[in-house]
User: Fold these one by one.
Assistant:
Number 1:
Amino acid sequence: MIHAAILCGGLSSRMGEDKGIMPWQGSSMVADLIHKVTPYVHHAILSLRSEQDKVYRTLFHNQIIIPDLLELPCHGPLKGICSIHLAYPQDDLLVFACDMPYISTELINLLLKSRSEDVPKDAILFKHDGQIEPLLGIYSASGLQRITQMTLNGKINNYSLKYIIEILDTKFINVAKPFTNSFKNINQKQDLTK
């Protein structure tokens, strides 16, 4: 089984307000992403910091919401991913950053097709122009189990997803120029008009 893990727990410090609930195409970035990914997954799960919980439960009362687990010693996107993994340890996660509203459904299909056709991998991620895109990809339950245990046991002290990917058996899919807009993050208000 596969679930969407929509990571909403960033601090949005450059934006000055929570990016996930900002207006976007008649709804919000998170609502738009939920609508986009729901046909491909069993559940769309929102990952967030505990202080966001009340607002998100009010706005997205029909969604599964998993606040970051305080007992996890890691931080950043890895904390959200591991928190969801611990709630759904048998399931793979299709991971998205909530501030990537231009994600193409063609890329989602490409990830899922690769997952079903290839020899199982710990992660399936995109690469373009030599850059790895860790916040749009599939992370397997078995790979997440290993990373989560290593984190809990103090065997990982670099929580960057780019470092974590080096530990995992990862398949990279090279992406051509027309799709690179899918990886664009909205970090500042002026990014909304570009």
Number 2:
Amino acid sequence: MKVRWTESSVRLRITPAEMDAVLHGETVTEALAALPGGAWRVALGASEAAASTLAFEAGGTLLRVALSEADRSALADPAAEGVYLKTPDGAVRYYVEKDVPCAHPRAGEAMEPATETFAPPPGFEERKNEGGGGSAPSGEDTGFVAAVLAGGRSHRMGRDKAALTLDGENGGGETLLAHAVRVAREAGAREVLVVGRTEAPEGATAAFGDDIPGMGPLGGIATALRHADGLPVLALGCDMPKLTPEAVRWLWEASAAQSGEDAAAEGVAAVGGPAGGRIEPLFAVYRAACLPRLGHALGAGALSATQFVAEGRFGRAAVPPEHAAALTNVNTPEEFAAATAAVVSRFEEDGHDGGA
């Protein structure tokens, strides 16, 4: 079993024999003995619980991953590359992947063991090439991580914008936050992170408070990137009542189309929308490459998201006319009232009942 970890993720790559053992209820372990104070071990086994678990035992020197029956069945699927999980609080992602042949750039230095490997599943090489190398979840070429930023203070609105409902401030319909989460899911997001909240609404993968409160949208974007395990993040505001799955999907596809043109790019931002030709920092894709500059900006108190994008290595994607209205955001009761009427009318035409 190969073990790789980052600040907030653990990746286990297993051989066919190890997978067979886990599927038959056995536990497989890997130990790193050359550590001061004793070995650090990882144990992978089966669980009878409804959900898979990750836990530290033996004073933190043993990391135990127990896969539920559903996740073991998913792992056994010949077309699957692995199972991709996270702890209930969303703080740690953990992946159990099938080890497939991969040419290590410095195999001699890395001392890669000669282990049994799986045959690559259908489409693996295409996903590896598009993603820049390495294994990825099935569907990685079409899925993406969305982050809904919901930590604003809503001063001009006079109340929490995220809690406003699409059928009126006092109605019982879908909140703006729930609307953004649902739209991101319908657009194809494989994960939806809510930043600036401690409770995840239905449909969201996880919710996080800002790592550093009071830093505005840039602080929320930095928090999302740190929880995305190196994956690009499509950032959305929580105050966009006209947002549509089609518009979000367009942005992701525009970003993907530009990703191969500049390997060092920090992301892609939409340009246009109801305000004309301005940059839309909360309708943009951010890549991990922007984190160093982002940290410097936050440290210097340069909190303008628009300025950050304008001064960085971001591609631009002109918003098509059919998606321009979807970028409407609301900051005052008057703007919300004007936008809500159009949204409710569209929901009724599309057959939505407004439920969260």
Number 3:
Amino acid sequence: MNQRVTERRRARSKDQKDERKRAILVAAEAHLRESGFEKFSVTGVARQADLVKGTIYLYFDNREDLLLALYVEKLGAWGDALVRQSPSGMSDLAFIRNYREQSLADPLYLQLVANLTQVIQRNISPEKLAVSKRITDYVLERLSTRLSERLDMTAAQVADALSGLGLLMVGVSLRDESNESEFEKQALRIVGGIRAESR
């Protein structure tokens, strides 16, 4: 009993609050991996974090707010991995293969991307949506800039390529298609089309 009371103590300092929020996100990720998207719940996260449900609501408005925070976190990690594995001068095909590999590396990332607009964003406050869009735009802008020199494209072209490849990747994952060569053909058309528009 004493351990549970200690864990329930209110986080008062900024560091304690940040630590509690981080612990909730870790628990949310574990719960999502165990239960899947449809069964993901605030109650399950609270149970996983060994907190009362009300504590979760001090940090997140609802289930979708938690999922959105996980998406933003996963987007940053995915982008960092994509850049790390994209050397300068790589071919479009090599980049497309890297894009696919990084997207498939963490199944939660694609699951969150696939549900972002239809489920997650529809059920959060306009204020939180605006903040998340600014963060997402910043992450994607930074990613596009970092990749532009490596791919010999403008940042705007990279942004268009990332958007097109993202839609293709989600479509493929939703249809549960694993035909790598078909993905590559369609992805090469997208990237080639973007390159051709600039000529």
